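Weekly puzzle thread! Below is a chain. First person to post its structure in token form gets bragging rights.
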Amino acid sequence: MSRIKVICLIMCVVFGLAVLCGPINQQVAMAKSRGTVSPPIISLEQASPPEEDRIEIDTKYPVLSGAADKSFEFDLNVRYLSGSTEARDFDLSVEAPEGWLSYICESKYTTDKEISAVHLESYGIQQTLLVVVMAPFWLYPEPGDYTVKLVVTSGGIKGSIDLTAKITARYDFSAATKLEGGRLNIKAETGKESYLPISVINTGTATLNKITLSSSRPEGWSVTFNPEKIESLSPGASQDVEVAIKPPAKTIAGDYMVSLQFAGEPSSHADDLGIRVTVGTSTKWGLVGVGIVVAIIAGLAVTFMRMGRR
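Winning reply:
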């Protein structure tokens, strides 16, 4: 009998708990449906602050190399990022070394149209720009890295990017005769020196440390230079050289070719000068020939006179 009472007591407790939990579950479900459940707690580190207005500028090639007499063209992309939907006008400027030529255009196909401002949409498509700079090559700037900066501003919004123009040395020179019209032919006599003035000019952008002069000539000929070599030649400078050409004494009269060659350091070459040398007979032998002709004529005259008297 006591066992039956215990079982009945346990069943009563279970039933009471079931009745009590039912309303609680219903209240929780109703609270969830009404959105009254407390939101999850988010730490301050997870919360992102509102984005500030800014300009983004990027380029694929921030460093360009070339000689001083070449232009440097930087392709850039500009984007305006803002929480606002309003577009803005931005001023454009280039900060380049003193004396440099600089301007901004839309692309390499519109270099004749310089721009100083650009209209940018907020979070719109990026705008392409071309920054063109050129060093004053007539001042022969030293090889090295030169900084160029593009600045984009509108009110308190400012963006910029540093670009590098790397100037490299160009070693080049030329040679020409100083004869009238730059002609490449002279006359010479056998056994005697004939002189040809030439000028060597540094047409590069850096100093040449040494220029050597040499020649290709017919066998037995003599070709000398004064000076024999040029120790140093600055950009744009020139040096006069006198070339002495001497055919051998027994050279047959006619036209001959003499080639003058030039080599500089660092490695550089000027075009060869091909000189046509016209060799004539010696004046001495010409006088001898004239004397013989005169003697023959005089002999004939005397003979005719004697015959006429007879």
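Puzzle host: Confirmed. Bonus trivia for everyone else. Residues 35-50 have pLDDT under 50 and may be disordered.
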